[in-house]
Design goal:
Length: 214
C-alpha cells in the first residue's frame, strides 16, 4: 500500500482535502479489453478494475459531450478542457449500455485539435445531448454490448501532470482504493456509470467517496 498526496491535476484538483490517499500501485495496463492508443493520456479519476494476481488493470474510457453538430448529429465534440479523451478509431461507444455490440455506433474519425476533440460516429446515438456521458463498450462474449469493467475497485491516479501516458509496451498504472475520507469531485473526473454509484460512494468499494461540488 502506497500513499499519495492530493496534487493530481496541475490545472485543478480532482480530490478535496489534504490528507493522503491509499493507493494500490504497480499494475500493468491491460489492453486486451480496452485498447488505449500509444501516447494517449489516462485521466486521473478513471474507473479501474485490477487483478492482484496478474497485476493487470482495465481502465474504462469515458467522456462527456460538449457539443453536437447541428447539421449532423453523428459529429460530436467531447469535453477535453481538463479531462483527456483516450478514444481510438474503431472504439464503440454508448450513452446507455444496452443492445447488441454490433448495433453500437463506432468512432470512424477523430479530430484532436488544439481547442476541440471531435469524433464522428458511424450512427446517431438516439437522445444524445450536451452533458451526457459516452462510455466505450465491448462484446460481452454473447454478442451484447457491455462495459469492460464489472466490479471496479477504484480510480486511477495521475503519474504525470495531466494523467498517465500510455507507452509502447508496458504502462504502469496506480489506482486509489481508499480516499481516506476525502472525496473525488465527480464532475472533474471522467464520468462514472450510474450503476457503479451508491449515494456518495463507489458501489463496489465504499472506501471511494464522491462529491457533486465543483
Amino acid at each position: 500500500m502506497k500513499f499519495y498526496g492530493q496534487k493530481f491535476g496541475g490545472v485543478r484538483p480532482i480530490v478535496n482535502g489534504t490528507t493522503a490517499i491509499g493507493v494500490v500501485g504497480g499494475f500493468n495496463l491491460d489492453r486486451s479489453k480496452v485498447s488505449w492508443p500509444v501516447g494517449s493520456i489516462i485521466p486521473g479519476g478513471s474507473l479501474a478494475e485490477y487483478d492482484e494476481q496478474t497485476r493487470l488493470v482495465t481502465v474504462l474510457k469515458a467522456s462527456r459531450v460538449k457539443a453536437i453538430d447541428g447539421g449532423d448529429a453523428k459529429i460530436v465534440t467531447l469535453d477535453t478542457d481538463f479531462i483527456p479523451a483516450g478514444f481510438a478509431v474503431g472504439d464503440k461507444v454508448l450513452k446507455t449500455v444496452a443492445g447488441t455490440f454490433a448495433a453500437a455506433p463506432s468512432i470512424v474519425k477523430i479530430e484532436d485539435g488544439a481547442t476541440n476533440y471531435v469524433i464522428t460516429l458511424s450512427a446517431v446515438i438516439s437522445g444524445l445531448a450536451v452533458g451526457d456521458a459516452l462510455f466505450q463498450v465491448i462484446d460481452d462474449g454473447s454478442g451484447n454490448a457491455a462495459l469492460p469493467v464489472s466490479a471496479p475497485q477504484g480510480l486511477t491516479i495521475n503519474a504525470d501532470v495531466q494523467g498517465t501516458v500510455v507507452g509502447h509496451s508496458q504502462t504502469s498504472v496506480d489506482v486509489t482504493a481508499d480516499t481516506k475520507g476525502n472525496m473525488f469531485y465527480k464532475r472533474r473526473i471522467p464520468p462514472i456509470p450510474a450503476e457503479f454509484i451508491s449515494g456518495v460512494t463507489l458501489k463496489t468499494n465504499p472506501n471511494i467517496l464522491f462529491t457533486e461540488s465543483y
